[in-house]
């Protein structure tokens, strides 16, 4: 990966012009609980967008709605202008990849094998071809390994390609998750708390990695509790509180918003009644 500490400036006005992801009026209810309440969010090409909010605000549920794990109760999610099918593998094929809050690597597989698993949506060879191990399969396999090694080099883990993933230090496991997600060649990468459990040094390295990924032309939507990380990285940040988006904007807009300060201090959000904090019984 690149070792730059200062990101290359994003060309003014170009990235903002092309919407990649457009979530509109997304609602997710679990019985009487409204976990996500009428959320609109756009990620444009070339952007790094942050999604923050207190615990239980609905951030991961919203991610799950974007990636087909959940079918939203209401609303639509478009990627490059097309409504996404509510099936995770089809969302991945369409160009969205994600990581999870809790690491989900194959512990007994090598680092390289974990990345190869992430490539399966980009592999055209079918089961029969794999069983026969014909020339088409062998060529695709060699190409796959080459691309996977390039990714490992990019994230700085090529020297550990043959190590079992369970033997990697925590910070490297998180990086490997990102490499596996990138193996599906996404246009948009969703990162769910990528620095959770990291020490400050690993967190700074993760910042550099996210900038380097954006410089490769991949847009990013990131959930994170580390405010410094979010404000260092993001062109724009949206704040979810009790399922609702209460504010969206640049660092100054978000930091100075009274509602955000109140939400983080734990006071009830004014006007937010039909929310994750309320159930049908309460209403
Ligand atoms: N499958 C589910 N069934 C019922 N309730 C759920 C389900 N998933 C999430 N919830 C509830 O929805 C609300 C939002 O949860 P979610 O995990 O999306 O919040 P979050 O903002 O990601 O929180 P955190 O920062 O703690 O990860 C919570 O009240 C949670 O208990």
From TrEMBL:
The ABC transporter domain covers which part of the protein? 21-267
Q: Which SMART domains match?
A: AAA
Q: What keywords does the record list, in alphabetical order?
A: ATP-binding, Nucleotide-binding, Transport
A Pfam family the protein falls into: BCA_ABC_TP_C
**Coiled-coil positions:** none
Q: Does the keyword Transport apply?
A: yes
Q: Tell me the GO molecular function terms.
A: ATP binding
Read off the PROSITE patterns from this record: ABC_TRANSPORTER_2
- In terms of superkingdom, the source organism counts as Bacteria
InterPro entries hit by this protein: AAA+_ATPase (IPR003593), ABC_AA/LPS_Transport (IPR051120), ABC_transporter-like_ATP-bd (IPR003439), BCA_ABC_TP_C (IPR032823), P-loop_NTPase (IPR027417)
Q: What PANTHER family does the annotation carry?
A: AMINO ACID ABC TRANSPORTER ATP-BINDING PROTEIN, CONSERVED COMPONENT OF ABC TRANSPORTER FOR NATURAL AMINO ACIDS-RELATED
Q: How is this protein named in the record?
A: ABC transporter ATP-binding protein
Source organism (scientific name): Kitasatospora arboriphila
């Amino acid at each position: 990966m690149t070792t730059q500490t200062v990101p290359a400036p994003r060309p003014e006005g170009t990235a903002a012009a092309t919407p990649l992801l457009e979530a509109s009026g997304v609602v997710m209810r679990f019985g009487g609980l409204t976990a996500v309440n009428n959320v609109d969010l756009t990620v444009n090409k070339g952007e790094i967008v942050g999604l923050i909010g207190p615990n239980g605000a609905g951030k991961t549920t919203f991610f799950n709605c974007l990636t087909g794990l959940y079918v939203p109760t209401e609303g639509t999610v478009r990627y490059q202008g097309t409504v996404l099918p509510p099936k995770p593998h089809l969302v991945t094929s369409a160009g969205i990849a994600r990581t999870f809050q809790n690491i989900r690597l194959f512990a007994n597989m090598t680092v390289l094998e974990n990345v190869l698993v992430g490539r399966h949506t980009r592999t055209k060879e079918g089961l029969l071809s794999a069983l026969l191990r014909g020339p088409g399969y062998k060529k695709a396999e060699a190409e796959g390994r080459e691309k996977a090694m390039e990714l490992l080099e990019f994230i700085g883990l090529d020297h550990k390609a043959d190590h079992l993933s369970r033997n990697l230090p925590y910070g490297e496991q998180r990086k490997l998750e990102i490499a596996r997600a990138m193996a599906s060649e996404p246009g948009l990468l969703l990162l769910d708390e990528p620095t959770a459990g990291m020490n400050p040094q690993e967190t700074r390295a993760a910042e550099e990695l996210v900038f380097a990924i954006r410089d490769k032309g991949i847009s990013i939507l990131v959930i994170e509790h580390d405010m410094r990380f979010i404000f260092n990285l993001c062109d724009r940040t949206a704040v979810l509180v009790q399922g609702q988006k209460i504010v969206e904007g640049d660092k100054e807009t978000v930091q100075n918003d009274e509602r955000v300060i109140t939400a983080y201090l734990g006071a009830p959000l004014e006007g937010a009644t039909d929310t994750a904090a309320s159930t049908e019984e309460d209403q």
